[in-house]
Amino acid sequence: MAASGSRKGIGGRRPGDPDTRGDIIRSAKALFSRGYGDTSLRAVAREAGVDPALIVQFFGSKDGLFLAAMADAMRPAEELPAIIDGPRKGFGTRLASWYFGLWEDDSRRLPIQAMLLSAAAHPAAADLLRTFVTREIADRVAVVSRRKDARLRAEVVGAHLIGTAMVRYVYRIPPLSDTPVSALVKLIGPTIDSYLLPAPRVTASR
Amino acid sequence: MAASGSRKGIGGRRPGDPDTRGDIIRSAKALFSRGYGDTSLRAVAREAGVDPALIVQFFGSKDGLFLAAMADAMRPAEELPAIIDGPRKGFGTRLASWYFGLWEDDSRRLPIQAMLLSAAAHPAAADLLRTFVTREIADRVAVVSRRKDARLRAEVVGAHLIGTAMVRYVYRIPPLSDTPVSALVKLIGPTIDSYLLPAPRVTASR
Question: Which pTM does this prediction carry?
Answer without folding.
Answer: 0.86
